[in-house]
Protein backbone atom coordinates (compact mmCIF):
# COMPACT_ATOMS: atom_id res chain seq x y z
CA UNK A 1 0.00 0.00 0.00
CA UNK A 2 1.44 3.38 -0.96
CA UNK A 3 1.02 6.72 0.78
CA UNK A 4 -1.85 7.76 -1.49
CA UNK A 5 -3.81 4.59 -0.72
CA UNK A 6 -3.15 4.92 2.98
CA UNK A 7 -4.26 8.55 2.93
CA UNK A 8 -7.44 7.71 1.05
CA UNK A 9 -8.36 4.84 3.36
CA UNK A 10 -7.60 6.70 6.58
CA UNK A 11 -8.99 10.06 5.51
CA UNK A 12 -5.70 11.73 6.46
CA UNK A 13 -3.56 13.93 4.21
CA UNK A 14 -0.64 12.18 2.50
CA UNK A 15 1.72 14.55 4.30
CA UNK A 16 0.46 13.22 7.60
CA UNK A 17 1.03 9.62 6.54
CA UNK A 18 4.59 10.48 5.49
CA UNK A 19 5.18 12.23 8.80
CA UNK A 20 3.96 9.17 10.70
CA UNK A 21 6.39 7.03 8.70
CA UNK A 22 9.25 9.41 9.47
CA UNK A 23 8.68 9.32 13.23
CA UNK A 24 8.24 5.54 13.12
CA UNK A 25 4.58 5.53 14.10
CA UNK A 26 3.68 3.36 11.10
CA UNK A 27 5.77 1.23 8.79
CA UNK A 28 5.99 2.10 5.10
What does this molecule look like?
This protein is an all-alpha fold. The chain has one domain (1-28). The chain is 64% helix and 0% strand. Helix 1 (3-10) crosses helix 2. The chain is globular, with a radius of gyration of 8 Å. The termini are close together. The mean pLDDT is 92.
Q: Which residues sit in consecutive blocks of at least 5 with pLDDT less than 50?
A: none
The amount of helix comes to 55-70%
Number of discrete domains: 1
Q: What is the overall pLDDT average?
A: 92
Radius of gyration: 8 Å
Q: What is the helix/strand order?
A: HH
Work out the strand percent: under 5%
DSSP helical segment count? 2
General form: globular
Instruction: Classify the secondary structure makeup into a structural class.
Output: mainly alpha
Number of DSSP E strands: 0
Distance between the termini: 8 Å
Let me know the largest β-sheet.
none
Summarize the structure in short:
This protein has 28 residues and is an all-alpha fold. It has helices at 3-10, 14-23. Helix 1 crosses helix 2 (14-23).
Amino acid sequence: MNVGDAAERSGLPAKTIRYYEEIGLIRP
